[in-house]
Structure formats: C-alpha cells, structure tokens
C-alpha cells in the first residue's frame, strides 16, 4: 500500500466529491491501521513522503482531531506540493524533453 499512497492522493484530487470521501476514508483507515499495528511502517511512510516532522508534531499537539485524519491531511498537502513542483519544473523550455522528469 505504501507505494500506492501517492496514487491514492492523486485519485482523491482528481475525483468528484462523492468519490473523494471514500478515497480519503481509505487513506485515513490505512493511517489508523499503521498507527495501531505498524508504527515503524508509518514512520517510514512519512519519511518516504518527506513529511515535515515539526509541522506534523505541531498539528498533532494543537488539535483534538483524530490523528489519522491529521496525518492524512498533511500527506495530501505534501503530495500536492510535490506534484505542483514537478509540474512547474517540467515547464522549462530550455531543458530537452529527454532530460525532463
């Protein structure tokens, strides 16, 4: 599932509201599972996705929301930021197409 997190987030961003709730729910369920059953796996996932540890800790310490919901929200924000950066990086017309990502 770890390899599919970014694809899951892509689907969440591309789907309509009715389907996006189901995808968000799946992501939250998976995060909750990791919290309860494979915390090291969660840490590895957050590291792999380059989640800002300080931002995550601050958010978890200042709200009473479900931790899985908070983590899912931060993952979605991070994946969206990475996609935006990648999309903007591809726009450089001076870079040959074969050298672009």
Give a structural overview:
This protein has 101 residues and is mainly alpha-helical. The chain has one domain (2-89). It has 5 helices and no strands. The chain has helices at 5-14, 17-37, 39-48, 53-62, 67-89. The two termini are 24 Å apart. The mean pLDDT is 80.
The percent of residues in helical segments reads over 70%
The average pLDDT score comes to 80
Q: Measured on Cα atoms, how large is the radius of gyration?
A: 15 Å
- The gross shape turns out to be elongated
List the uncertain runs: none
Largest sheet: none
Structural key phrases:
101 residues, mainly alpha
Brief account:
This protein has five helices and no strands.
Layout: helices, strands, pairs:
Layout: H1 5-14, H2 17-37, H3 39-48, H4 53-62, H5 67-89
Helix pairs in contact: 1-2, 1-5, 2-3, 2-5
